[in-house]
Write a structure and sequence with these properties.
The chain is mostly helical. Helices cover 38% and strands 8% of the residues. It has 4 helices and 3 strands, in the order αβααββα. It has helices at 21-32, 37-44, 48-61, 103-114, and strands at 34-35, 64-67, 78-81. A 3-stranded antiparallel beta sheet has the order 1-3-2. α1 packs across α2 (37-44). The longest helix has 14 residues, at 48-61. It is elongated and about 60 Å long. The protein starts with 20 loop residues before the first helix and ends in a 6-residue tail after the last helix. The relative contact order is 0.15.
Length: 120
């Protein structure tokens, strides 16, 4: 007898079949528009530390802003997606520098365009 697997609620349309944590976090941020770290961690099914690291880079790049008064005690910080760059998750460092597409990503784009190609 086969057991039914729980289906996770789909997060918009993800760019890849097997998304990375950052791709899942980005899809959740695009879906929610305003969010907390805990909400993104639960939607993307990843740790809060990963969310915090990614948010730090996105804030430094100017893609996400922290809203409200962060000086108040016992309040969760609320973030807002300011600049939506599309389905593909932006590759950012913690200092906010945006990285170019990876070699693997460029290779897949070339295969999509070329249709016929060789390994070389």
């Amino acid at each position: 007898m086969r057991r039914r697997q729980k289906k996770q609620a789909p997060l918009l349309t993800l760019a890849t079949q097997a998304p990375t944590d950052r791709e899942k976090m980005w899809a959740a941020m695009r879906q929610e528009k305003t969010f907390t770290q805990a909400r993104i961690a639960s939607l993307a099914a990843c740790g809060k530390g990963k969310v915090q690291d990614y948010l730090q880079g996105l804030m430094a790049a100017g893609l996400v802003l922290k809203q409200g008064d962060s000086a108040k005690l016992f309040t969760r910080a609320v973030y807002a997606l300011v600049k939506d760059t599309g389905v593909d998750a932006p590759r950012v460092r913690q200092d906010g520098t945006i990285l170019p597409d990876s070699g693997r990503h460029r290779m897949w784009n070339a295969m999509r365009v070329l249709k016929a190609f060789t390994v070389a």
